Amino acid sequence: MVNKRELTEDNLEKNFATNTLGTYILTESLMPLLLQSGTTEARARVVTVSSGGMLTNKLDPVDLQVENMIPFDGTMAYAQNKRQQIIMTEEWAKKYADVQFTSMHPGWADTPAVRTSMPGFYEKMKDKLRTVEQGADTVVWLAVTNNTVATDPKNSGEFFQDRTIVWKHLPLAWTKSNQADVDLLMDKLSKLHNQFK
Q1: Which burial class, exposed, middle or buried, applies to 195 when counting CB atoms under 10 A from its CB (0-12, 13-18, 19+)?
Q2: How confident is the model at residue 132 (pLDDT cuts 50, 70, 90)?
Q3: What would the pLDDT profile of 88-97 be if each residue is shown by its tens digit?
Q4: Residues annotated as part of the active site
Q5: How far apart are CA 64 and CA 189, in angstroms?
């Protein structure tokens, strides 16, 4: 997480470029291989590491590069990127029915990123944070398990924490997006992806 608005050499906001556009380009670029490698018995899988930090954030499909966020707040930009990842995962699950898509929240783990990006949070929570291994547990499980909760095609597009499907929206948080906003996000990402082909 970058705590001040910085641009890449391609003139993209760094949080967006890393968390959203990078995830989109990598996944779309791998789709031909994923579609070829999966079978009916063992579908190819894509696991996106998102964050529960997105739970209070509604998608903003207009300001993807947070140009209008004044003052800039790296934590809020990160939360917006993580909401975007959840929506991308849902949309890929609809678009590519032969691949299993999941997203997950690792819980708050004691990582260098948490220490440097959120020092106040780290100081308050450092004795309660998960180990890196605990944070990685669900992402590894989603990638390799034969458990039907994780592999059932009906659960493609779901959000997991601690090997369990969890809510993508908090009750009364008003974070659900309409399909027009979702379509706008996916269209913008597709256009940006095309610029880098």
Answers
A1: exposed
A2: confident
A3: 999 999 999 9
A4: 78
A5: 9
